TrEMBL record:
Transmembrane residue ranges: 99-121, 167-189, 209-236, 257-275, 287-306
UniProt keyword Mitochondrion, yes or no: no
Protein name: Stage II sporulation protein M
PANTHER family: SLR1478 PROTEIN (PTHR35337:SF1)
Pfam family of the protein (one): SpoIIM
InterPro entries: SpoIIM-like
Superkingdom of the organism of origin: Bacteria
Length: 327
């Protein structure tokens, strides 16, 4: 069976089913149509499962059937339950599916910024090529601009400011990924900033201070940027190579995944902003500040690879439940 042709042929009926499930009031004729479309779509889902379809196609149809089944049995969607399901299933699953992309972005970013840092720290010609001033004491000395950046503003205002800025950067990396080059340029600019700052601090013999101020919030913050950039590039690559699906279907599906990731990353960057606003500039020892940041970062990684992987695995079981006839 040609899965793409089969899904294309039935897509209008799935959209009609989803539309009926979302209506506040149904006429008797529409209620009968809803039940008929639900049963037909359940059979179609079973057939798709036997031909190993794209997991995101399966998940999309399963979600439509879930909404329809809820409407048929007369249940109402619990808003808080949906919010909880978003953070326990949809968001981590979307991030988990994209992990090869954002892990690759992270690896390239770290290698590039490390190379730039070494170049800037060891070679005066590098600082000249990059247009850096000969004397950077105002930035790198104890109490210099690098450190006061984190302490010169009230903690709450600073946390809100960095949250807004980081959310904007992540959104740009995510949604310009469809064009690929703008996202690559944005990620390179961030790697350049990190590499130059690290290089200047290393040249001044203060690399320990650099890590002491960057790592508490930077581990989570940069990971969020990597996720956004990786998901954005995956969206752009889907436009080039849609796989077995039609280009329109594949891009629409990946676009929905990107929107899910964007919404979830707003929460991740909020936590990162709290770390940058309250932990990074705190008088706690640097080792303790870094440890706090590492624990939060490790919890996020565990969240993605435990909740996300489980959510992806559960989709088959959830789909199986949907095949049972309603009431």
């Amino acid at each position: 069976m040609d899965v793409d042709a089969y899904s294309y042929a039935h897509r209008r009926s799935w959209e009609r089913l989803d539309g009926l499930a979302g209506k506040r009031r149904l006429t008797g004729q529409e209620a009968d149509e809803l039940v008929a479309l639900y049963r037909r779509a359940s059979q179609q889902l079973a057939r798709l499962q036997t031909h190993s379809p794209d997991p995101e196609l399966l998940a999309g149809l399963s979600a439509v059937l879930a909404r329809a089944r809820g409407r048929i049995v007369g249940t109402r969607t619990d808003t808080w339950r949906e919010i909880g399901r978003f953070f326990t299933h949809r968001f981590p699953a979307a991030v988990y599916r994209a992990w090869p992309w954002w892990v690759s972005v992270a690896a390239v970013f770290i290698v590039l910024s490390t190379g730039l840092a070494y170049w800037v720290a060891e070679y005066r010609s590098a600082r000249r090529i990059l247009g850096l001033p000969g004397n950077t004491d105002s930035l790198t000395k104890p109490g210099g601009h690098f450190e006061t950046y984190y302490t010169e503003h009230p903690h709450d205002a600073f946390a809100a400011q960095v949250w807004t800025n980081n959310a904007w950067v992540a959104a740009l990396a995510l949604f310009t990924g469809v064009l690929i080059l703008p996202a690559v340029s944005l990620l390179f600019g961030n790697a350049l900033n990190v590499g130059v700052s690290a290089g200047l601090m290393a040249h001044a013999g203060r690399l320990d201070a650099f890590f002491g101020f960057i790592l508490p919030h930077g581990m989570l913050e940069l990971t969020a940027v990597f996720v956004a950039g990786g998901a954005g590039l995956k969206l752009g690559w889907t436009l080039i190579d849609p796989g077995r699906s039609s280009r329109l279907t594949a891009v629409a599906r990946q676009g929905r995944a990107a929107a899910t990731i964007a919404l979830g990353l707003a929460g991740v960057l909020f936590v990162s902003g709290l770390l940058e606003g309250f932990v990074t500039p705190s008088p706690l020892p640097a080792a303790l500040r870094v440890a706090i940041g590492f624990v939060v970062w490790a919890l996020f990684i565990a969240y993605v690879f435990v909740f996300g992987r489980n959510a992806v695995r559960e989709q088959g079981d959830a789909a199986g439940e949907l095949l049972e006839p309603a009431g």
